[in-house]
Amino acid sequence: MIPTRFQAPLVRNVCAATLWMAGCSAVPADGGRAPNRMQAAGPAGSAAGSGAPIDSKGAAAPSLCTVGATPCYCPDGKMSGTQFCDARRELGMCQCDTAASPTMGVRSDAMSVCESLRGLTDCSARTFASAQVPASILFVIDRSGSMACNAPPVQSVEACNTDPHRLSATDPSRWEITVAALKDAFKSLAGSNSTLGLSMFSADGSCGVDSTPIVGLSAVDDAQLGSLSMAMDSATPAGGTPIVGALVQAYHHLHEELHATGNRYVVLITDGEESCGTLGSEDNAADLQAARERLLKVEVLKARDANIRTFVIGAPGSEGARGFLSELAFLGGSARAADCAHGDPNSDVGDCHFDLSADADFAATLRGALGKVSNDALACEFPTPPGANASTVNVQMSQDGAAPDCILHDQRQDNAANGWQFPNKTDGSMDTSRVVLRGPACDRLKSNPSTVVDIILGCAALE
Hints:
Layout: E1 11-15, E2 24-28, E3 68-72, E4 81-85, E5 106-107, E6 126-129, E7 135-142, H1 157-162, H2 174-188, E8 194-201, E9 209-210, E10 215-219, H3 222-234, H4 243-256, E11 263-270, H5 285-305, E12 308-314, H6 322-331, E13 354-355, H7 362-377, E14 381-383, E15 393-398, E16 405-407, E17 419-421, E18 434-438, H8 440-447, E19 452-457
Parallel strand pairs: 7-8, 7-11, 11-12, 12-13
Antiparallel strand pairs: 1-2, 1-9, 3-4, 5-6, 6-19, 8-10, 14-18, 15-16, 15-19, 17-18
């Protein structure tokens, strides 16, 4: 029996490929082809079925905010910030009160302080029990027609582009490899402090995208794993590649979903380039370019302001979109290295994303990439107490009830880092409202569910 949270209504809302240009239309639950987006069935002055204003050419006008202030999510996982819609009806950055950290218990026992800070006379160490920041992860998966092809070397990308059908019935398709890897990744997150959800595109065998995830965000328990598995097993590759529309819908859902706690992530897996734009035609180069630019220059930046990061995995077939996907990962806050190649979204050069297009073993590298994404999303991140001074913060860790160990401060931004550090804000400045464990210190935390992390104030940071 299908788990309750995966049961779909007979008619689901499917939004056309790009949110700011298209309305929503009813699509049969059997995945039948969506009605033409531009059918003028609605009242005069509105897009069909959406109520959105249309311009003189019949296209839906941009989705604009209402002038004034509106609540928004902050790094504490609560809708505690304020976002302002200006006179141009565009949203600004979410303004958060960094002093409004969650309440933390204070320990007065001197032995609760790690040994290196115990008994110091020139400072007064106070320990604060801190709760790990949870993660909400929405996977946005490409199930376009080309995902039915076998992965190289069984079937080359060129052969798939010429005839997007499976070449070998005995070898797995790109879709089957992706589903198997995702099931393993989802299981690895069971019992963590994360919630998972799933969207797929296209949703209608053409250029449609779902306005809400096919599996909503929920804790990773047996029921949720069953829902995710059932959704993927029930899907078959078909249709175009509306990357822009799918991501915009994912961003809006995470921004509006009250249950999307803590840090928010969108994980995109695609084997191709944007092929839908706002008009649903892969032959309209100008429209496709405008859609990509809107995503990079507006939508992904708004998502970052709302504490939503974007991970990008490029499967075989995404070679032509390498520059675009790399720029998307860089602007989305998930660049694999600070010096990764980016800046030209129209080129085939870029390595800020997980580029699996040239790997001989797609199955193995996809599993590795998903493991890395999962580890990064489940960040070893903890809020600092109100009034924390950057120069007098320390971190300690205890496991299985043993005495706590001091964790050294290590602000290096490379793979050699081992300790705790303050993360950077989107503008590059230091965010002292939270600390992040890096390297072996983070691995140690993840390896033992009994781990307790305390933030210590009052003494110079141990380097």
